[in-house]
Amino acid sequence: MRDVFQLADDLGPARVIHVHEPALGLRAALVVDNVARGPAIGGLRMAADVSVEECFRLARAMTMKNAAAGLPHGGAKSVLWGDPHMPRERKASLVRAFAHALRGESDYIFGPDMGTDETCMAWVHDEIGRAIGLPAALGGIPLDELGATGWGLAHCAAVAAPHAGLALDGARVAIQGFGAVGRHAARFLAEQGARLVAASDSHGTLVAEAGIDVAALSRLKADGWTVADYPSGRKLASDAVIDVECDIWIPAARPDVIREDNVARLRTKLVLQGANIPFTLGAERILHERGVVVVPDFVANAGGVICGAMEHAGATERAAFDAIAERIRANTGAVLAAAKRDGAMPRAAALELATARVRAAMATRRFNVM
């Protein structure tokens, strides 16, 4: 594992903070990457196998995501080591203690991420008053409940599909990670005529070439069951979702699920990255050379942070969802047009767009700081 400062460059990170409270069993970290555009927004990720290097990569993705989306916010990420399914009281004590430890870090605004949700953000808000993705009871726009990221992915798909020679009506969709992001993406894409043919979670992969009832599978998951409990279709190992032939493949779970050693198994025309850093750069390059259109994470899945930023600014739910659609459609179109014009990977075009915005903001700062 590399030290995070081996990955540092002129954009960041601005700060790396480790929090360790042995008496509580608390081990956590915050990476504030860049705040030139404003206070950094980034989710709190909870898992047993997180790392500071992963935290930095995710923080940088948030810097790019917030800049690409035109938000007045920088990028950051926090991680908390632990099982996200631990008893509620234990989880609350750890999240609250971590938030309290960061009470003076006004450059960082907590948001929900893998392993955390609106309730966790309510705990953070109760401790330090600095969180987005709050429950509606606290005046928030519950982005996971409403499906803000999935809404954005569906609009991204509408713009990207023609670039991949696809029509959404009838397109076959496979989703790796049928959770908060994946199920809403499936729902919104189904409303445009797409057909879910495969979905996976940590317990397995469900495949049904004729189509999966998205509403039925979502209800099953909400009741605590898994994709393997769906009454029909073929049931395979979790990793088998990579092998399912489809038109649109959406990773919506962990980082680095597609790498140089397994990218050859992927058979699709369009990838919409619903998770953060789900592919290695080498894997994306291989897909680009094969003619597969890959819309990078910080363009495709920005719906959640756009919603959170709008909530932070006091906007309504309708205004937030209108902003998601408008910004993601515009950015997807601009990035894919630039990539086609320059013969470049979409990620390279997206990074050029976002980095230019970050550097322009840095040039206005008093000490040209991160």
Describe this structure in words.
The model has no long low-confidence stretch (mean pLDDT 95). Strand 3, helix 1 and strand 4 form a beta-alpha-beta unit. Helices cover 39% and strands 18% of the residues. The two termini are 24 Å apart. Helix 1 packs across helix 12 and helix 6 (180-190) packs antiparallel against helix 7. The strands form two sheets. A seven-stranded mixed beta sheet has the order 9-8-7-6-10-11-12. It has a five-stranded mixed beta sheet with strand order 1-2-4-3-5. It folds into two domains: 4-65 and 75-140, Leucine Dehydrogenase, chain A, domain 1 (Rossmann fold), CATH 3.40.50; 148-303 and 330-353, NAD(P)-binding Rossmann-like Domain (Rossmann fold), CATH 3.40.50.720. The chain is α/β, with parallel strands linked by helices and 370 residues long.
